[in-house]
Amino acid sequence: MKILALCFFILLTSCSTFNKDREKKESAKVSLEGYRPLTSLDYIDHIKAFEAFYLDSKEVKVYPLTAKEKNYLTEIASELVKNNELFFKSKVQPSFRVVKSPVPFHFSLPGLRIFLSSGLIAKYIKSEKLLYSVIAYELIRSEKNIYKKAQIVPTGFMSTSRALSLLRLNTNEKVEVHKWAFYTLKRVGVDPDIYLSWLQIQNRNSVDFSLQLGDISSISREESLFKAFIVENAKKKNGQAKYERSSKDFYAFVNRLKR
How many other CB atoms are found less than 10 A from the CB of residue 5? Predict the structure, then answer.
């Protein structure tokens, strides 16, 4: 009987020791010592992946820009950046893609990656100053990573409507970007009042811009708030605006998209 009791005690002790060893091993496997919580930069890297998903979509056809057209768009961006060096600090080379679509829209992704639709350029960008306005807006968003945290399940593709909905800002956020764009244009020599004209164009054609805007009623409030900003911050203009007329490169670029 004593021998049986001793054997039972040894077996119980062995099981206890085995369980403790197993617990230690399992604890080591799930150690959280290397855990790093997600930061805002992780979300920016996530949003960068939208580019590959978007370009891989069947509905997305990219307009083949000539080397001259690429240089033209890059020179506009470079001029905006160069004259606002305290604002643009990333030193990233901007890139442009023109998407074949009759629907007017524009958006950007982190890393100064700017997308414009052919319909936007051919139908609504009637002057070079308007093109500066659109590019300034997207450069600012991309430079300062002004994007909402958005997580998607990777499917290998992303439609234009999906991309715009994920990247859309609320009215107050957009107005703040508009204000920065106003000062950015002013420093480069473009009459910043053209920016109000750009918002008014979207407001007058809000149904056409519905894919861009989401809620078409929001553009009226955008225009109203931005107009109040201009009135409040109105200053005497120094000299004549630099871009009274659009360049030959501008007309060549736009006219080719109209064909």
Answer: 9
